[in-house]
């Protein structure tokens, strides 16, 4: 069985604030996120297939991730829905694209959310291998299938 990993990279901008955090990230601030999605599978061997030699068409992977992961988060304010409603109303006044999340909006939690979304979308024979979410030039979090 010839298994090959393929990776597609994405970029999106988003702001967040960490409810109850004891540092400056409790304030609304933004990041230029870089997401790497790696899947694994066997290249198509059917000589009649338009996808001959591919594990997964990069274009198909791009459409899937963009629609279900990147677009919902891009240029949004990402907040924990457990924050007090009064605080959320004050924060939300100047913003029009607010995404309320059922978790603390950290890179680690984003990866758990993204992994769940992506796993459900992949075609048969293709497995999510890893995710990397870069929050800054020198800080990132990673998710690996074998760890979960």
Produce the secondary structure layout:
Layout: E1 4-16, E2 29-41, H1 58-73, E3 76-80, H2 85-92, E4 98-101, H3 107-121, E5 127-136, E6 139-144
Parallel strand pairs: 1-3, 3-4
Antiparallel strand pairs: 1-2, 2-5, 5-6
Question: Could you describe the 3D structure shown?
Answer:
There is one protein chain. This protein is an alpha/beta fold and 148 residues long. The chain has one domain: 6-pyruvoyl tetrahydropterin synthase/QueD (Tetrahydropterin Synthase, Chain A), CATH 3.30.479.10. The chain is built from 3 helices and 6 strands; from the N terminus they run ββαβαβαββ. Helix 2 links the parallel strand 3 (76-80) and strand 4. It is elongated, with a radius of gyration of 18 Å.
Order of helices and strands: EEHEHEHEE
Strand order, main sheet: write it out: 4-3-1-2-5-6
Structural class: alpha/beta
* Low-pLDDT windows of residues: none
Strand content: 25-35%
The CATH H-level superfamily is 6-pyruvoyl tetrahydropterin synthase/QueD
Shape: elongated
**How would you sum up the major sheet?**
6 strands, mixed
CATH class: Alpha Beta
Rg to the nearest angstrom? 18 Å
Which fold name corresponds to the CATH topology?
Tetrahydropterin Synthase, Chain A
Distance between the termini: 23 Å
The number of helices is 3
Tell me the domain tally: 1
* CATH-defined architecture: 2-Layer Sandwich
In helices, the fraction of residues equals 25-40%
Q: What's the average pLDDT? A: 94
**Count of individual beta strands:** 6
């Amino acid at each position: 069985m010839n298994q090959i990993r393929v990776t597609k990279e994405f970029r999106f901008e988003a702001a967040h604030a960490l409810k109850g955090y004891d540092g400056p990230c409790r304030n609304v601030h933004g990041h230029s996120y870089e997401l790497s999605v790696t899947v694994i599978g066997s290249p198509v061997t059917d000589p009649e297939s338009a996808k001959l030699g591919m594990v997964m068409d990069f274009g198909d992977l791009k459409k899937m991730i963009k629609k279900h992961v990147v677009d919902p988060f891009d240029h949004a304010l990402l907040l924990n829905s457990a924050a007090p409603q009064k605080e959320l109303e004050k924060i939300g006044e100047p913003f029009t694209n607010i995404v309320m999340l059922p978790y603390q909006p950290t890179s680690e939690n984003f990866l758990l959310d993204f992994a769940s979304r992506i796993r459900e979308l992949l075609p048969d024979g293709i497995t999510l291998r890893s995710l990397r979410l870069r929050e800054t030039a020198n800080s990132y979090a990673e998710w690996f299938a074998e760890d979960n």
